[in-house]
Amino acid sequence: MRVAINATEIGRNRGGNESYLLGLLDGLRSLPDSGDRLTLIACQAGATILSAQSWPGRFDLVDTGPWSRWPSYLWQQTQALRRTRAEWYLSTFLLPPVIPCRAGVLIHDLSFRAHPDYFPIHIALYMAMLVGWAVRRAQVVIALSEFTRSELERFYPSALPKTRVVYPGVSREFTTEGDLAIDRAALREYGIEPPYILAVGNIHPRKNLGRLLDAYERLRQVRADLPGMVWVGVERWGSAQLQQRARATGVQLTGRVAPEHLPAFYRQAALLVYPSLYEGFGLPALEAMACGTPVVASSTTSLPEVVGDAALVADPTDVAALSEAMARALFDETLRAQWRTRGLARAGQFNWATTAERVLASLKAIEA
Fold first, then answer.
1. Verdict on whether the full-model pTM lies above 0.90
2. All residues at 6 or more sequence positions from 234 whose CB lies less than 8 Å from its CB, including other chains
């Protein structure tokens, strides 16, 4: 089977989309060679990153040149596909206007449909239009969670028969086995010293960081020994006022953190809090658990499905509940030890090789 993969998210600092693709490619690279031929279609920045890695012989690379916005980017994909002579094309969210082969589309979440108010109106509109078009045209739709599958059923019910759920994995660098001195040196590059409470994700309305800040301030009023707080993530739409308030409260905002430093941030954190209002999966929760860090997560959307019984969950709209969960996870040593053990076991159930195998199987099932 010849598969072309849209890898243009790589090299663009695209957060979860880029992390997912890098993990999927690592998983594909680890599989035994079964004769499948895989071509990666990347923009110039991503091609530079990918070509610097050691790829097995069955991976080809197509460099589409400098990144261009849609619709030009979508036409680039069509032109690249014609060159690859692929039997399958796999892309995240969007498909090009002309697809000379079968297509699968990866759907991380449908937040732009469920909560268009989280986005600038033009982004919500074009994502709704183009993702709907892609879902209708694809032969396979891959959802990252059962929750995302249910959202596909809600917004695109005709896609349900061709939808498959394939969970992401946890990359191998997220582990408890870090060198303390190296970790501390990495943190110092960002001006960070443990202990701290950690939040990871773009500073975006659906990440619910405003209520997290409320919960933190509430807890600080009764706990003089409360650690500081660190937010790892890039600024998104309309977050300037929230960032100003966070800094005034003493939160350290790192912006983007180099991928090789992120495990150190997890390992040295006293706690990860992930109070998102809407998630299609939620990789940071699993990554933190793989590093042995206790997690407080939202009790909504995909997150209970992801963390299972290995984390404390709380209503993300209830500031008092968030504050109480944070206090328990920080100061109850018995509970902390329990969540560490459960978290490591839970994270161990997710790996990229299994993800890659199931993605390929989803395509092959259509051919059978």
1. yes
2. 13, 15, 202, 203, 255, 256
Q: Work out whether strand 140-143 and strand 163-165 pair parallel, antiparallel, or are unpaired.
A: parallel
The per-residue pLDDT for range 17-76, each reduced to its tens digit, is 888 999 999 999 999 988 889 999 988 888 888 887 766 567 899 888 887 766 556 778
Question: Under a CB-based contact definition with an 8 Å cutoff, are residues 166 and 90 in contact?
Answer: no
Beta strands in the chain (DSSP E): 2-6, 37-42, 59-63, 88-92, 102-107, 140-143, 163-165, 196-200, 228-232, 252-255, 271-274, 295-298, 312-314
Q: What is the pLDDT of residues 294-320, one digit of tens each?
A: 999 999 999 999 999 999 999 999 999
Distance CA 326, CA 25 (A): 35
Pick the CATH number of 2-169+351-367 from 3.40.50.880, 3.60.21.10, 3.40.50.2000, 2.120.10.80: 3.40.50.2000
User: What is the Cβ-side half-sphere exposure of residue 129, based on CA atoms within 13 angstroms?
Assistant: 9
Write down the H helix ranges in 156-191.
180-188
Can you give the pLDDT at residue 72? 59
The rounded Cα 169 to chain-centroid distance in angstroms is 10
Would you call 63 helix, strand, or coil by DSSP?
strand
Report the CATH fold assignment for 180-347. Rossmann fold (3.40.50)
What is the C-alpha to C-alpha distance for residues 242 and 244, in angstroms, rounded to an integer?
Answer: 5
Residue 26, token pair as written in the block: 């690592």
> How many C-beta atoms surround the C-beta of residue 268 within 10 A?
22
Q: Identify the helix (H) or strand (E) that includes residue 364.
A: helix 352-367
Which amino acid makes up residue 139? Answer: Q
